[in-house]
Target: FND10 protein
Amino acid sequence: GGALVANVLRNGSVLLQWAPPRPAAGLRGFALNCSWDGTYTRFPCDSVELGAACRDYLLPEAHGSVRYRLCLQPRYAPPRPPPPAQCVEFRVEPAAMRDIVVAMTAVGGSICVMLVFICLLVAYITENLMSPALAAPRRA
Model:
């Protein structure tokens, strides 16, 4: 058959795409099965029946830091036996971790800018206000 590809999108959803199986004669549709490994146990997802013309499927909300396994099984009219299922495994990056990294980078950058301004201000004060040239001349 065709290759099954999982495209992990930025919003945490996953777009599954596949090419039509060869030969396509007698194809009745596809069965999509999935499972994912949680912290302590493995969870099966509900089976999804797809039409014969379908070439993609959107998994809207994938959990971060979880290993998914999705298998696509072509369904043919009898008496043809079904070919082996194509499977793909992937892991979605946790969105919260990505947001924390972006926030920490922004905060760290603004702290660096503030430190530069403080250093420049201290240098200006030291150079101009505490300079011996501004002290009153001594009279003898």
The beta strands are 4-8, 14-18, 27-37, 42-44, 48-50, 56-59, 67-76, 86-91. Residues 94-130 form one domain.
